[in-house]
Amino acid sequence: MKQYTFILASDNLTLYHNGNTYEANSDHVNYNKILKRIRKGYKSDKQAAKLIKLFDTTEAVKSYLNGNIEITEHGQLLYKSNPIDNVLVSKILDMQRNGFNIDPMVKFLDNLLDNPSYSAQQELMLFMEANQMPITDDGHFLAYKSVRSDYKDSYSGNFDNSIGAICEMPRGAVNDDRTQTCSAGLHFAAKEYAGEFCQGHLMVLKINPRDVVSIPNDYNNQKGRCCRYEVIDEVPQATSGADNYNTKVVHESSDCDPDIHQQFCIECGISLSECDIQEGECPTCGTVL
Prior knowledge:
By secondary structure, the chain is of the alpha+beta class. It contains eight helices and 16 strands. It folds into four domains: 1-60, no CATH class; 63-113, no CATH class; 118-235, no CATH class; 256-289, no CATH class. A hairpin with a 4-residue loop joins strand 4 and strand 5 (69-71). The protein is elongated, with a radius of gyration of 24 Å.
């Protein structure tokens, strides 16, 4: 096995290996992964092959959700073959370049773009940005709702908000004008806002982005209206402080503890750390895990 040499410029990396040249610009979808592997080095032909494979633009194109969403080799995100660009897209691309798990974010984007209202798509991002709401593995988001002591909604008293309940109403019956700050619809909010009005129970809601109708423009985008949600839990009424839900659900796949050893390589017998397992190969012999 021959080792490599490489040249790293400000926005370009060139690798020379066994008489071949491989290049990747900083917008390459695998650029940060390539840098990581080069800095780590390799000790086997298998590891070298995996490094070189990262340069392959065909391999670099990532498809998600049956091809609805693609990330090209130059870091452009396509939805049903059409390029899109918003705050969420830039976050997804940044996470992908840095090797994080983007599946929940991609599913959230797919659900968001399934929302029939363009204004609702944009307004929901204002709510998500303002309140750092969690995203679930299936691409929904979590929010809070204050309800009465009998678990009925505070306004009409007609909707049961017990754990497990699904509340819904016709989308056309929900006010889509964000300047109408108090109006018809199923309401959700950030914990800080919902907790201030809680006189009974503080419930956790799971909401599909496609069911959001409007985000009223008062209270710093802390509340919203939708046509459907699922009640998944109840939390203490405190307006602040951590609970099981007001932390990000999306986990960084590279977040590991190198001191945790969980298994051994079947080829060379070396003890593998959690990081090695997440990396997907033995650091000593290059065996794919």
